[in-house]
């Protein structure tokens, strides 16, 4: 039986037909409750939440927020600011160019979730709510009040589907579920941001600098979270507060400013990233930083193949391995069969060149395939590479790669007398081995970003996009599809090989197990593809953000033990369900998944 989809106007929300919120409180009461609740949440963070320092973060101090209290303080402050902006307080209207109500709701949810997570964690770890001090109870109560107040703000409810008397149980459940989803979406819906008056160039550059400073602070705080509870609270807070800023229209406004100064934004972002090692007291988190950059750089190379040209490559990590093995063999390792010790720049170029040759050799006979068939062939290539280097141990094959032992004892780089394996003091800051490689890898990433940007804006880049959108139509327009796809394959392979040359020196040892299709620790082909899709295909920032999250989150979720990958997989499924275009999509791809969104007046060559 087919359910009728005829829409009927929803019933009036109140006697006068005015919309109302999910919670049955008057609008003025709810707005005041959300604003005051956010302010009291800030005050509560200066109180003790528990009597013992056994809970991580030492929440026993009065007058000094610590640990998870800092996150609640930030969430409460933002909720209060959005609430004041909704009253039209002068000087705060710039915070909510698209309206304040949706932002208030998301900020209140984030503050409520972080607070109650903390209270529940304290009770669970210390043995009951008896371990809470008055500050903990106050925080829980005021954030609940802010949450209820926020969801009493009115909104336009969606129309309900017509009820069919003959519908089945499954159809009834589906109709109810669709209505709940539409209701929640409408509750946080915000109109398009009001166009802002154009600021002077220097003011817009200052906005970009401020945005970079905030980004560096958030990343440094997240990567430096010292215990599991703090990282989970960090994810909750950042997720909801970023959504609140997005609903307020502030993210769109900053994006418009960065779009007008794209070159300044790109170099500003890399300067902010270069400052990261100087914010660390040791090499612990610089280690994570350099691996994130390696992962992100390879993901950006894959973005050329998948995001621009639309070719599904499931064996891309093999090109990273080709570059790493090539550089390891010519960098003076005692395990190498070749008695060579070339300078880094030459070994890096050689790694990129050999990877590109492999890309051409694999791509030439296979790129006439499409879709799933091409994906299967590339998956086979990735496994063939891993098995081949595993068997080149002198027993199953020629003694070249030393088999499962790999090429070990790869010496540290020494460029112009700068030994990357030693600590150095720069401007009074001491940076260690991994910080040295972080700065080098950041330079490699900048080169890859420039190559990606120039390629996507070029004639060949437009041909890639045409092939991605409709290969048959592109061929009919005179584009040589095979040549264009082969160039994408070769360029993506060479960029991965370049990153592999640095990876060989960072890890000291190159082994076949590092280059699998799927593994717990990235980079591997599955995680690389996930980073591109999760971040946003066809963009520059998307794979960088996606790679950072995919590397950082599994590393911080180790406390889940055997459930680590399960929780990670559930998070990815939910993200792809509710934001299939990725975290930082280009505008064209966003419109493909959300047809109700307003189309832009102008689309760039990449659709951004």
UniProtKB/TrEMBL annotation:
It comes from the Bacteria. The chain crosses the membrane at residues 32-51, 71-90, 102-123, 135-155, 205-224, 230-250, 262-279, 285-307, 314-332, 344-364, 371-389, 434-452, 486-506, 526-553. InterPro entries: ABC_transp_permease (IPR001851), LivM-like (IPR043428). Keywords: Cell membrane, Membrane, Transmembrane, Transmembrane helix. Its main location: membrane. It is a multi-pass membrane protein. It is found in: Cell membrane. This is Branched-chain amino acid ABC transporter permease. It comes from Streptomyces justiciae.
């Amino acid at each position: 039986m087919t359910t009728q989809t005829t829409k009927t106007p929803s019933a009036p929300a109140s006697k006068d037909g005015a919309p109302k919120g999910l919670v049955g409180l008057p609008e003025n009461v709810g707005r005041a409750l959300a604003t005051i609740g956010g302010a009291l949440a800030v005050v509560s963070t200066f109180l003790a939440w528990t009597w013992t320092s056994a809970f991580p973060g030492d929440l026993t101090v009065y007058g000094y927020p610590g640990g998870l209290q800092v996150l609640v303080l930030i969430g409460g402050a933002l909720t209060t600011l959005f609430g004041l902006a909704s009253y039209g307080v002068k000087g705060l209207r710039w915070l909510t160019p698209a309206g304040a109500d949706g932002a208030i709701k998301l900020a209140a949810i984030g503050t409520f979730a972080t607070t109650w997570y903390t209270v529940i964690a304290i009770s669970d770890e210390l043995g009951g709510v008896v371990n809470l001090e008055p500050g903990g109870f106050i925080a829980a109560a005021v954030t609940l009040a802010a949450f209820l107040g926020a969801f009493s703000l009115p909104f336009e409810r969606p129309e309900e589907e017509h009820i069919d008397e003959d519908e089945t149980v499954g159809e009834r459940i589906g109709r109810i579920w669709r209505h709940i989803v539409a209701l929640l979406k409408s509750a946080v819906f915000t109109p398009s941001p009001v166009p802002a008056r154009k600021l002077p160039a220097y003011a817009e550059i200052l906005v970009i600098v401020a945005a970079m400073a905030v980004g560096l602070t958030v990343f440094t705080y997240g990567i430096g979270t010292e215990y599991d509870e703090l990282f989970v609270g960090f994810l909750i807070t950042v997720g909801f507060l970023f959504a609140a800023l997005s609903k307020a229209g502030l993210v769109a406004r900053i994006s418009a400013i960065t779009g007008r100064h794209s070159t300044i934004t790109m170099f500003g972002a890399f300067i902010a990233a270069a400052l990261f090692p100087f914010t660390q007291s040791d090499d612990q988190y610089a280690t994570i930083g350099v691996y994130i950059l390696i992962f992100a750089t390879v993901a950006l190379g894959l973005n050329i193949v998948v995001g621009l040209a639309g070719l599904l490559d499931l064996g891309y990590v093999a090109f990273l391995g080709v570059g790493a093995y090539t550089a390891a063999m010519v960098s003076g390792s005692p395990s190498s069969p070749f008695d060579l010790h070339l300078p880094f720049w030459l070994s890096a170029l050689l790694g990129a060149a050999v990877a590109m040759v492999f890309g051409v050799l694999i791509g030439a006979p296979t790129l006439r395939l499409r879709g799933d068939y091409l994906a299967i062939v590339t998956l086979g290539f990735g496994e063939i590479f891993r098995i081949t280097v595993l068997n080149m141990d002198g027993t199953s094959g020629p003694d070249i790669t030393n088999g499962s032992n790999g090429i070990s004892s790869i010496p540290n780089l020494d460029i112009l007398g700068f030994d990357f394996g030693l600590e150095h003091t720069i401007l009074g800051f001491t940076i260690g081995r991994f910080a040295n490689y972080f700065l080098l890898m950041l330079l490699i990433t900048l080169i890859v970003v420039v190559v990606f940007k120039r390629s996507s804006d070029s004639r060949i880049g437009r041909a890639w996009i045409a092939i991605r959108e409709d290969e048959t139509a592109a061929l009919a327009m005179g584009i040589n599809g095979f040549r264009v796809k082969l160039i994408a394959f070769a360029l993506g392979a060479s960029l991965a090989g370049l990153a592999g040359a640095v990876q060989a020196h960072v890890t000291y040892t190159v082994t076949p197990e590092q280059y699998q299709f799927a593994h717990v620790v990235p980079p591997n082909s599955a995680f690389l593809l996930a980073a591109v899709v999760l971040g946003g295909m066809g963009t520059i920032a998307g794979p960088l953000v996606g790679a950072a999250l995919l590397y950082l989150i599994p590393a911080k979720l180790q406390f889940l033990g055997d459930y680590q990958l399960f929780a990670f997989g559930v998070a990815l499924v939910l993200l792809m369900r509710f934001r299939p275009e990725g975290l930082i999509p280009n505008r064209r791809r966003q419109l493909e998944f959300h047809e109700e969104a307003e189309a832009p007046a102008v689309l760039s060559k990449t659709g951004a």
